[in-house]
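Entry 14. Ran structure prediction on the chain below.
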Amino acid sequence: MEASGLRAALRLTPTDSLTIDAAVLYNHLETEGVPIVEHGMGLTQNRPLSEGSDDEYSIFSLNIKWALGAATLTSNTSYFDREQETLAYIPALGGIANNLGMDSETFAQELRLASNHDGPLNWLVGGFYKDSEIADVRQVNILLGPDIIGPLFVESLVDSDNRQWALFGEVSYDLSERMTLTGGLRYYEEENDVATFVSLLPIPVMPVAQSLSVLTPRVSLSFAINDGATAYVNIAQGFRAGGVNSNPLSGPAIGSTYDEDSAWNYEAGIKGNSADRRFSYGASVFYIDYKDYQADIAPIIIGGGVVDNIGDAHSVGIEGELAFKPVEGLEIRAAGAWIEAELDENLLAPKGNRLPLVPEYSASLSGSYHCDLTDQWQGFASGEFSLVGGTYESIFNFFENGSYEMMNIRAGAVLNNFRFTVFVNNLFDEQVSYRNLGDFGPGSGFFTNPPRTVGLKLSVTY
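Output, structure tokens:
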């Protein structure tokens, strides 16, 4: 693996009321191989093809904040450019080479004007615009022998142009010294144009044009129990836009569309801290009601599945977190969650099946400590332990990605602008099945994580 990157930031303050932040981020990552292994083979890979990936992207951002007295105007502008290419082996059809390439460009602009009133009434209004262009090329070749790529089996070219814009507003009002009511609306429009060509088909797939307009509300009520604790209730509606299926191996589904889905989210909770700020906590319960839930109904082993609306679903859960600072420099955090996420209709899959990639439970425990070693050196140490329950790859619940435990530790020292870190990732050398290819169970392979990794890292800031 070879990785290189650049990060730079510049802040200008022409006046006391105007701040301009500009930043650029560049990353380039080349890998030999892909993190896919077969079930029962540990980290051993049996590949007749030299796999690899090349991912290069740049992000440019500009943030302007202008204090106008009674209100503050904020502008966020960003541009994202990315080029990706992956060559992977697929055992289907006696062995094929799957070459995926994608070029994408995205421009986004947001403007917000928020009041700064001392009185009970405050407001926020704004607008958002985003334009994305994606060129997706997929080539599937028959593999004639080790690293011998044969004739082209199928090729697809997908060009998509997605445009989004939105207007939003929010008003909050203090009903009393301890109670605040907030309401908001967001109007959203989207246009999505997709053109697909697949070499196996006698004629190109007809271009597809989709459009969407939706109005989503949000209401929240908060109550300050005392100076250190607040209870709240939130009700909000959200959605996911529809799209076009363009996987070249999905047969008659090529060019088919799926509609947007929507969800109502109901949440109640409490959060607070002790008077000395050494202890803080938060807990919440939630219920999400999905309509026309979107899900992948085909195996990802063919390079990306077929999405469709599969009916109604729900998610209900409990979340909590604690943080404690027993002594100066030491902080301990704990968090946990339990979630039931299931189908409510027996359409394409049985009612009661769990939703894809949602663990039933998760928990984490972390700690960090820092102190002065000498007048010039500062030391630090930290550790993070996480426990994540099993998940299913698809709505059919054929095969479960097992639960796993993960432990990372690190320690080091800081001298002026230099930071020295010794780290151990995946201390227990746990092998995790993150994504099971195709939901086919044993024999199909799965995406996995790196083994136990011990290293030394040197960072310099200037």
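The chain has no helices and 28 strands. Will compare against last week's run tomorrow.
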